[in-house]
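Section 3.1: Structural characterization of target chains.
Under the original work plan, the team committed to producing a structural model for every single-chain target entering the pipeline before any wet-lab resources were allocated. The record below documents one such target. The sequence was received from the expression subgroup and is listed exactly as submitted; it comprises 66 residues.
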Amino acid sequence: MLSGKPAEKSEQQKKKREKSRKIERIREKNRYILKKYQKAIDNRCKSLYNNNCCAEVQFGKSIFKK
C-alpha cells in the first residue's frame, strides 16, 4: 500500500506542473498579443486625436471599427 502512494503523489505533481506550464504558455501568448495591439491602439489613437489620446478611454469606442 505504501508503494502506491508515492506514485500517486508524483503523478499529481506531474499534472500540476503540466497545468502550470499550459497556463504560463497562455499568459506568454496574451502578453505578446497585448503588446502587439497596444502599439496599434496607440498609433491609431495618435493619428485620430493629434497625440492627445488616452488609449484606455478610447479602446471600446471606435478604435477597431472601420
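The chain has one domain: 4-58.
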